[in-house]
Write a structure and sequence with these properties.
This protein is 60% helix and 0% strand. It is mainly α. The longest helix has 26 residues, at 2-27.
Length: 139
């Protein structure tokens, strides 16, 4: 049935995130220079919507949430929304946006697309406070 398939997908995604988180925690790709360079930034100098996400995940799994937001302010809220949706599917729990933002729905994907598109535009404006959206190290 559709519920069982959705539940299996949700469990698979959660396990994937857990494995990725453990890999980031134990391997420490930032310290070993194993992170992938962003091709958009490499060729255009612009920060794409994903720039800083690897460093944000690394900072998160190491407990440095403030630095994670400096690397990429949308990663943690996005992961939280996806996790809540997947949790709702697995345990058949309702939350305020569950009908509008059902996991794997076009509405959720479109919402995230437009949020990240706006984020891409604003983080490349070289004026404060917009330049604070670009990945940076806190001092």
């Amino acid at each position: 049935s559709y519920d069982m398939i959705a539940k299996r997908k949700a469990v698979l995604y959660l396990l994937s995130f857990l494995i990725l988180g453990l890999a980031f925690y134990f391997i420490q790709p930032l310290r070993l220079s194993l992170t992938l360079p962003c091709p958009v930034h490499l060729f255009t100098g612009l920060h794409c919507p994903g720039c800083g996400s690897q460093r944000a995940i690394q900072s998160t799994v190491n407990g440095n949430i403030v630095q994670a937001f400096a690397w990429h302010p949308l990663i943690l809220p996005t992961l939280a929304i996806l996790f809540i949706n997947w949790f709702a599917v697995i345990f058949k729990v309702s939350w305020p946006f569950s009908s509008q933002l059902a996991p794997y729905s076009g509405k959720l994907i479109m919402l995230l697309f437009f949020i990240f598109l706006g984020f891409f535009i604003f983080r490349n404006i070289p004026v404060t406070p917009f330049n604070l959206l670009a990945p940076h190290v806190l001092t």
